[in-house]
């Protein structure tokens, strides 16, 4: 009796081992290559968008950091030159600094002698050009952050359509493995699109914050310059 029980247990163990599912590994390369031509095109496009977003982010970040650097004594020197009537020296100092703030002040200095409202208008117009230069290509990041998830979702829809098409051609018999493979392959493009979109969104907002700080610096120094011109001699 005991031998019979042992034999039955061994047979049950063998059956369990035979029916045991083999753990399937999942790699990014396999997901990309198994997505078919449409999936690979979508992934390649998203990868290109990621490279473009990364380049624009770092290029603008370094440009904005360079624009925000300014000597703390710059405005004091400008005011001393203007007070002493050394307009040329003030212009030379602005050219040496060569920053958005110095270019605005230089524009205002070039209008000294005209009504204060005209000087203010000239500085505002120059400020718009400086802001436009600081925001160069930043809007592309906003476009990428919005378009990348939609492109990824397009790849998912295409992948699901192809999976359903394969199931329909299999004679109406639903192959769970075929359906599962098609679904996780299709979802790969959505994940890739979301990753690129999130990176683009964070990069865009970070650059906007950095740009706003430079704009505030420009406005503060411009007002300080105008206030100095408005002071009674």
From TrEMBL:
Transmembrane segments annotated in the record for this chain: 38-58, 138-162, 182-204
GO biological process, one term: protein import
GO CC field: plasma membrane
Membrane topology: Multi-pass membrane protein
Pfam families per record: MotA_ExbB
Keywords, in A-Z order: Cell membrane, Membrane, Protein transport, Transmembrane, Transmembrane helix, Transport
Residue ranges of domain MotA/TolQ/ExbB proton channel in the record: 98-219
Localisation: Cell membrane; Membrane
Domain of life per record: Bacteria
Entry's family note: Belongs to the exbB/tolQ family.
Protein's name according to its UniProt entry: Biopolymer transport protein ExbB
